[in-house]
Amino acid sequence: MLHENESDCIIECGMTSLNTEVQKFLAEYKRTHPVVYIIRHFDEIKSLLHLGDADARRLRIGDSKHRIYSDFEYFNLSDSGSLSENTAPGSFPSPHLLKEAKADFCNFLDILTCAQLHSPLKSMSFFDIASTPVENRLYSYALALTLSELTNDNFDTACFESGQDAIRLIIDLKEEHSLEVITRIIASIRRIAKNPIIYDVVGLEKALSSAAYFMETDYLPLLSHGIRNCVDYMMVDLDLPDTISKEVISQKRRTKVIGCFHDEMPGKHGWQNKTRYEKYQQARTLGCDMVQLTQNAMTRNDNDDLNAFVYSLHLAQETPLPLIAYNTGPLGRSSLISNKILTPVQYHASNSTIDSFNMTARQAMRGLFATFIFDSLKFYHFGASVSWSPFPPAMHKAAYNELGLEHSYQVFETTTLQNIKEITSSPHFGGASISLPFKASILPSIDIKSSHATAIGAINTLLPLRDSLESDKFSLEYQASQRNRAGPVIGWYGDNTDWLGIFECVHKNLSPRNTIRSSKTSALVIGAGGAARAAIYALIQMGCRKILIFNRTLQHAEEVAFHFNSWANIAEIPAVIHVIQSISDPWPVDIQPATIIISCIPAHSIDSQRPANFKAPEKWIQSKSGGVVADVSKS
């Protein structure tokens, strides 16, 4: 069976994998195919299978052998998603709650196969920070958390919303570890924080750093365990003998390796020591993806020496290896601000459990504004009727303050495009949300549009394109690097994120029974404005291929249908948009009743027009399996 299904499928082995002969076969099979060991809290397994103590003990002993015969590992979290193990076992959750388990496992498979790199949800724009690797962002921060902190029942998961770009999971060799607990914590971080994970095993005795010492400790097994869990980044000590380092790096699969070296007692002018450059070259030779060089700051001059070292490397390398470099200790804090890649930060600096990481992401960001590396920018919400805006300035102000951003936000009502052009010409214009009636009418003025905005034929997000003497003026890579920086505006970039919100809303609330099937599922969109366009695009991205649209002005509905039918034909997507011409029309007999209904009718008057007072006829709402009704009403 395994040989006949070698690709494009998932094979669940069940209890058969406890058989010795099958396990021997899996040990060979994993050389060419990914074999995943799925773990669950054992008390839950015992309860679900109604096992006695003796049977449970035998099953646990047999199950633990799967770690030997697999090359990947995954923890199936209970539906609470708690970081704590103290969850009530045995209860069967509702189908909607099981969607979290499905999303978690699908995400793990995407990571394992790198499928997330090709997801249609990924924007093709450099402005989409979520799709930009952290090492390529202008400044990025890694929240440092120890395994003991994360396994504490009183751990505050609010720290995952502290502005970091990654989570640095620190595992101390001096503490006892359970591989199962590490796997569970990694799964919990992925569910709750949704940040890349940097896996860092610390506590090596440098005075004993020999090949024999590394082999005798848990250091190498713990590194291998990180690779098994498909962590995004892994720290590898450059004091490892090169033969061992090469062996570890050769097994990294999709995990990126950060070669790291720390000098606790560097002496005077440590950054001028040739060892720093040698360690950088060692990381390059070993095949590391990044390198981290740090030392304990002895004087404040060490920060100047560090800047000189970084600059000299920049001049010497044609293709420099991404470098994380900073000084540790109280005298090295300013170097944390100037470091660009994965600066380690704490949630509460005053309560730091790790002496080196005594700065929060908020403090680091404020430091960038205080030193004029970043500039205060002005953001807006433009539209003809936005005084009711669901994004009030107070909310943005609170968010800016929490993240250390010194920006402002203003709701600006206007009915003329000229007013928008005047405001956005300011060097301190940072960006804007766009509402009716400009979502489609502003398109001719847009210099560059995202692929999503082009497909939808409307935008809701406006960003400035700045003049440049350093790069092609319309290079999106350069433009994205100017985030949080003021400068002359020479054009606009337009994007549409409405569809993402609609996608998530429908996807999270659609029951498994109504899972979208391209040959069967149908949807109804009410309205024909910018939100309706975004809704249709979201449905197509979800796999829905039979979409009906109704609007009180028939011509507008036909224009939207023509736009998407033409786009789908060019994109070779077999989607068909049907127009319901009248509220008295029956539901088409050859199309299944809609399981998704999205209302895109504005809730407020636009240009003195009376808001629509629409009531869908019962004949359009006849799905026997229920479904999702989403109201995305806004101006």
From TrEMBL:
SUPFAM superfamilies in the cross-refs: Aldolase, Aminoacid dehydrogenase-like, N-terminal domain, NAD(P)-binding Rossmann-fold domains
Residues in Quinate/shikimate 5-dehydrogenase/glutamyl-tRNA reductase domain copies: 518-575
Gene Ontology molecular function, alphabetical: 3-dehydroquinate dehydratase activity; 3-phosphoshikimate 1-carboxyvinyltransferase activity; shikimate 3-dehydrogenase (NADP+) activity
Domain of life: Eukaryota
GO terms classed as biological process: chorismate biosynthetic process
Transmembrane segments: none
PANTHER family assigned: AROM/DEHYDROQUINATE SYNTHASE, QUINATE REPRESSOR PROTEIN
Signal peptide region: none
Segments forming domain Shikimate dehydrogenase substrate binding N-terminal: 392-462
Protein name: Quinate repressor protein
Pfam families linked to this entry: DHquinase_I, Shikimate_DH, Shikimate_dh_N
InterPro entries: Aldolase_TIM, Aminoacid_DH-like_N_sf, DHquinase_I, NAD(P)-bd_dom_sf, Shikimate_DH-bd_N, Shikm_DH/Glu-tRNA_Rdtase
